[in-house]
């Protein structure tokens, strides 16, 4: 991972999380169904109006690091067998706005910090 400029040959830069942490991922990963699904979910939730490169702002950095580890170290073909498993995994990495709104609503009812306020307090 570098801090700016062009990614090395065979890699592409992607910015993750609210802090836009830069990752240089192998170009072959962009075609993986999980990563394609994350990018499609990001487009659906945030549109294509983002500037400054390919980004997945709703994904937490630690989860994206886990995804990259999984892509590099495990056979993920089983995710293609059951579309519901892929959908559940995408919900973990990039929750839909309705899911986030439900979390925020339920935590307010219990006087717990919302995901947004918890992220800013740490």
TrEMBL record:
Pfam families from the xrefs? Auxin_inducible
Gene Ontology terms: biological process: response to auxin
| InterPro entries per record | SAUR_fam (IPR003676)
Lineage top rank: taxon: Eukaryota
Alphabetical list of PANTHER family matching this protein = AUXIN-INDUCED PROTEIN-LIKE-RELATED, SAUR FAMILY PROTEIN
Which family is this protein grouped under? Belongs to the ARG7 family.
**The protein's name:** Small auxin up regulated protein
């Amino acid at each position: 991972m570098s801090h700016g400029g062009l990614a090395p040959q065979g890699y592409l830069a992607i910015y993750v999380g609210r802090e836009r942490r830069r990752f240089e991922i192998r170009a072959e990963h962009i075609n993986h169904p999980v990563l394609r699904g994350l990018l499609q979910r990001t487009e659906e939730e945030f549109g294509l109006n983002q500037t400054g490169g390919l980004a997945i702002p709703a994904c937490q950095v630690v989860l994206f690091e886990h995804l990259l580890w999984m892509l590099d170290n495990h056979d993920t073909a089983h995710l293609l067998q059951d579309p519901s498993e892929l959908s559940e995994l995408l919900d973990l990495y990039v929750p839909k706005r309705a899911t986030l709104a439900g979390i925020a609503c339920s935590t307010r009812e219990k006087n717990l910090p919302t995901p947004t306020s918890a992220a800013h307090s740490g």
